[in-house]
Structures are given as C-alpha cells and as structure tokens.
Amino acid sequence: MTETPHNDQAIRENVEQLLPISLEEMSGIRLMNRTDMKYVSNKQRLAQLLELARGKYYAQFHDGDYIAPYMTTYWDTTDYLFYMEHHNGRSPRQKVRVRTYVGSDLTFLEVKTKNNHGRTGKKRIQVPSQEELESGNDFLVQLVNHGLNDIHPTIRNRFHRITLVNYEKTERLTIDFDIRFNNLETDKRTGTGELVVIELKRDGNSYSPILDILRQLRIKPLGFSKYCIGSVMTNPKLKHNEFKPKLVEIDRLVNRAY
Known about the structure:
The chain has 258 residues and is α+β, with helices and mostly antiparallel strands. The protein has helices at 5-15, 23-27, 43-52, 81-87, 137-144, 209-216, 226-234, 244-255, and strands at residues 19-21, 34-42, 57-60, 68-76, 93-101, 106-114, 120-127, 152-166, 171-183, 189-191, 195-203.
C-alpha cells in the first residue's frame, strides 16, 4: 500500500475527536488480571478504528499532543541471545532496551520478560540518556545476568504512538506507526510504511468495546516484536526461518488494497 498523506490527516483528525486523558490519570489505571494481545493493520484501518472509538475511549494527551514520539535502542549479546530466544520460541525469555519518551526527554533502561504462561512483565529504571547507562549496570546483572560489558546496542527504532483507554478504565490500547529502524551494526535503515501495530492490555473478565471494533474492521491478532522484525529487516545474516510466515502476512496486510 502506498503511503499517503490522506491517511495521516484522517488519523490526526479522528484522534483529536476523542476526549483527552492526562498522563497522570493514565498512570493511576491498574489492570490486575491483565491479558495482552497484539494486532497488525495499516493506517487506513487505523483512521477507521479511531472514528469508531469515539464515545467509548479516551486518548492520552501529553506535551500538547495526542501523538507521542518514541525512540528505543535494543541491546543484545554478541551471539544475539535475546533475539534467538524469541526466534526459537523459548520461554521465559527477555529483552533489554533503552526507551526515550522524546516529548518529555525521559529515558529508561528496561527489561521485558515473557513467562511460561505468555504473560509479559516489565521492570525499568530511569537513566540520564541513551548513552549514559552506567547507573543501570547492577539492575541488568540482577535481572538478566549480563552487565553492560556483556551486551551492546544492536538496533534502534523510532515511532509514533497513540494511547487509548476505555471509559470504564479496564483496558489500554497502544497504537504504534511510522516505525523506522536503524541497525547499529549493519548501518542499514528501513521503514514500515503504512504498518500499524496495536497492543491491547485488558482485564481478562471485562467487556472490551475495541474487540467488537477490531472484528468489524477484520483486524486479527498477530504477534509482532519490533526488535525481532526490525532485526530481520536490517540484518540478513540473522537466522529468521521462524519469522518468514509473519513477514509474508505483514506484507499482505500492509500492501493489500481495500
């Protein structure tokens, strides 16, 4: 699908029609029995989703905007331990990343862990910048048994995010788009065009209006790891047999005509 300014304009116009919710209000929402699910679609469908969400969802408004820029750098060992754990379907598995909330100029060193039951947890500490991580060395050793001398930055991404929460405040929806990758080892850069990645976090027993909207728009669940997909797209030397079907499906979703 060709990237068009029309889709960007429609996304902007539709998200601005949603009632705002502040970052402080969002931080008070606790999902105690949380389940996570990812979906992949495109910008045309995203504009429609935001229109259908009107009257059911708030949109996070922070730093004067509904759309927030992010930058994330992933770190791995020389033999790509964290990448290969995901590729091989191992659980529990972990990822190490440094995420900057560009609008707020806040940076966190984070460890994500997916357990044997498919649940994902995250622990993080604030660090001065993407380049100043020394204060997080003990944090890493404790959680992943590797310090800063054992791992190195492999790939960086930038993207925009919209965050929604339903009126009952029983679920959060993060919507990422304009995802661009820069491989720090191969120096290859690439983007994802019209791709949209949606992640739904909800209390398992609560009614979810967005599930009805996703079904209406024929947006189906599909796992997506920015680290793994970005790595495959920018480093041809990596083993990626297990990701080939997903890459084909992503290409079909993004490039099909509606």
